[in-house]
Amino acid sequence: MEININSLVPIDEALNDVKIIFKIADDIGKAVILKDNKPAYILVKYEDGIENIINTPAANAQYTLHEAMQVVLSEAENKTLHASELADIIYDRKLYIQKNGEKAQYNQLRARCGHYPDMFEALPGNYIKLKGEDK
User: Fold this and answer.
1) The CATH number of the domain where 15 resides is what?
2) What is the DSSP-derived secondary structure letter of residue 56?
3) Could you tell me which of 40, 2, 47 has the C-alpha nearest to residue 25?
4) Is the pLDDT of residue 50 over 90?
5) Which helix (H) or strand (E) covers residue 97, if one does?
6) Do residues 11 and 35 make contact, with C-beta atoms less than 8 angstroms apart?
7) pTM of this prediction?
8) For residue range 95-135, what is the model confidence (pLDDT) as tens digits?
9) Looking at the 3D structure of the chain, how many domains does it have?
10) Same domain, 75 and 22
């Protein structure tokens, strides 16, 4: 199951404003509620086909590689990690797994920086930084 990064809602935010979950489900088709930074609940708009999620546990949700990078880097100190550490975390958390079942290699993550220059910055020493998340 693919998860749109815009459908993710932390559980605290969901509990404080329940309407946001329904708005996201109406706009995107589903809302994914995160507990401890992991998908815990999914609210699916019925007409979008509940049969697509019945046999797919939320804990095994898959992201595209750049979405997984964004999730992990947004939680990292200074929004920066070494490419190999980033690859390990993404694989360990099962955010992105290649079709062959293996983890993405660090050079694939660095290549994504070139594909998404507005989102990521490749720094010297094989570090990757998430742009635009200065909070």
Assistant:
1) 3.40.1620
2) S
3) 47
4) no
5) none
6) yes
7) 0.54
8) 888 877 788 898 899 999 999 999 999 999 999 999 985 54
9) 2
10) no
Do 69 and 123 lie in one domain? The reply is yes
- C-alpha dist (Å) from residue 59 to 17, 19, 32, 128: 23, 24, 11, 26
Give the Cα separation of 86 and 64 in Å (integer): 14
Is residue 73 domain-shared with residue 120, that is, in the same domain?
Answer: yes
For residue 86, give both structure tokens: 């980033």
Question: What is the token pair recorded at 103?
Answer: 């983890």
**Placement of tokens 């589903």 in the chain:** 30
Q: Is residue 18 part of a domain?
A: yes
Tokens 């699916």 -> residue:
44
Amino acid at 17: D
* Full residue range of the structural domain in which residue 111 is found: 65-130
Cα 111 from Cα 105, distance rounded (Å): 10
